[in-house]
Design goal:
heterotrimer, A mainly alpha (404), B alpha/beta (195), C alpha/beta (191), B: alpha/beta, Beta Polymerase, domain 2, two-stranded parallel sheet, 4 helices, C: 191 residues, alpha/beta, Rossmann fold, five-stranded parallel sheet
Chain lengths: 404, 195, 191
Amino acid sequence: MEPVDLDLEEGELELPSEPMHLNMGPSHPAMHGTVRIVLELSGETITKADVQIGYLHRGFEKMCERGTWTQVFPYADRLNYVSPMLNNVGFALAVEKMCGLEVPERCQWYRMILGELARISDHLTCDAAMAMELGAITPFLWLMKGREMVWDILEEETGARLTHSFGRIGGMAKPPTDGLKEMVRGSLPKILHLVEEAEAMLLKNRIFLDRLENIGVISAADAMALGWTGPCLRSTGAAYDIRKAHPYLKYDEVDFEVPVGTRGDTLDRFLVRLGEIRQSAKILLQCADRLPESGPVNCDDPRYVLPDKNDVYTTIEGTIQHFKLVMEGAKVPAGEAYSYTEGGNGELGFYLVSDGTGTPHRVRIRPPCFAITQGLEKLVTNRMLSDIIPTFGSLNMIGGECDH
Amino acid sequence: MSQLALDKLKAKFGAAVVETHSQFGDDTAVVEPGVWRAAAEFLRDDPALDFNLFVDLCAVDFPKRVPRFEVVLHVYSFARRQRVRLKTRVGDEEGEGCEVDSLVPVWTGANWFERETFDMMGIVFQGHPDLRRILLYPEFVGHPLRKDYPAQKTQPLVAYRTEEEAGTILDKLAPFGGDEGMAFGRKFYLPKDGN
Amino acid sequence: MGELNRSVTLEGSESGFATTKLDALLNWSRKYSLFNYPFVTACCGMEFMAVSSPRYDFARFGAEAPRFSPRQSDLLWVVGTISQRQAPVLRRIYEQMMAPRWVMAFGTCASCGGFYDNYTTVPGIDKIIPTDVYVPGCPPRPEAVFDGLLLIQDKIASGVREPSVVKPRADPVAGLVQIRDTKVKAKEKTK
């Protein structure tokens, strides 16, 4: 056979070629739930990527219209299921905005503690999964160990490791346990030590850096037009953190920084999340100092908060109040409101429309990772196939939230 | 929230702004469907407003009202730290005729949100580059978030197995009675030796 | 922890089909080297990650090797809610697996649809594929998952594929836990 002459011009060698179509998902090892990406490849380069979500659509918004306002909490938990407490608190704050309730101080600190623990769990999971998909399984196991410590605290407080359903309109389901502060102060150094060990393994590794640096770059203006918020937006350089910009609960009374990236690439998204774990730990230690030892956790408003069980069984007002709240639901005033908090992935918004009865008319969740996953197509076009894995991992698409 | 945005919208569009309110502290403006895209561009381009971060686009179904659907847009200004909500009303009581301009040329982020609103509520966005279903499969008929779609009406893609095919009962009933099963949680323990 | 009476009594014949020593040997080797296909969709996936993590380690049971191709795996873990859109995918993956194959429904959504009684959720994967073990919980604790895994191992060892009912087993903490509440009068056991 004659050898091919290697210094031919591109156009002279007429080989028939057509783009190859490759289907990634919806069941694939990158454990992000279920997303299907239909790719058109030219060699190893992606020319078109069609990101198809919706394989975990569970009808959250339709389900909410069939119960009472409090019955939304278990559904809300399963939205961003790696940080369920943040969804609970977000929805509770939204309903409280419409009802005009202000929860007692002890409840605000308690919500902050549980919320920041959930945020640590979210970022640990995202970074661990990213490392594992690139082949670094050991840091994944270390960070999972750290996540178990967080879940131990949450299990002691709420009774469940993962889907707590602990928020209520006007407060929380139960007051904090006595050992909360010791558990938080005891676990945080261990978790941060595990994070440092994982960092030492990964951030000096040439292969890891080569796979993440300058991959999936996006500018701040493009990100904002796409609707990005949260760690992904902060990695592009735009410092927008709702806890600083529009503080809620007691975030204006604690001292923390907002880690911001510079280039908007995958490595920045990875590092911003690691930085946020440290900042959350800082917030947690301050909250543990400031959480009052005693005091009410729920609002004292009989229209929205369930009465004490003792009263339910002994007084007639307690019985009626309990009956009305459970059977008919809390009657939230008619109207509409949009309330937003900083979820694990960004601005988690709830747009609620009430018609004055105990059943919601419309509960709309504004999922942060829905807007973020929109940008995936733009990020991976003209990159190579193997760049999808770290890029998609760094976006932290949580199926329950994206497909709601 | 942004009262300034409401004032400027009223000044620019006059009668096309049907109503404004600030319920629960959220500034909201309702405009005619004809000026939907123009109002959005004004919100983005006006230097005093500068709403550059797209937040949310959804629809709400009020079956007893005409027009039936309300398309709701939330946007945020990163530099001014302000928000505004813009709404418009479309659709008749059958659910027909709900067309509104697409906002994809204004903010690229509107893309998937409009696809989702089309999927769930059936609002057609004119000028959208790729309006197809996003959360449900293409074979699905109907728009489930509308109030007249029954929540439990399924349209399976794979036919469910029948009991003959499975060779076993498929209904899940508890196989044991009230006094069987794990002991803890159901009975009280009596200390045997009176400790 | 006391004696765990772990031998599960499955209704149906005790010996099943594993009547020869060769069969017994094959079943023994199959049950302790399960290659699982984690079909992970939702929140139960987080508990799946916890089950594979150092604290609750399913490598102890020989089941830690995930194979992401159905051709190479024998235990299909259906973890999380299956939506109507996902159903053909699940059916296809099940059909691509080769016998002998077992299916575990991990979580309530996979077992019976969970509390998502709506237009988009399949009410249990046994409407689509035959299932061997159902592990309830939302999400199930890792200990419950191991219970299910051990039940599958028992099914493999005995060779029984008929539907069976798990009889209540001996309570592992009976007699070890004493509730010391002297204020409340102890109630009579209703039997």
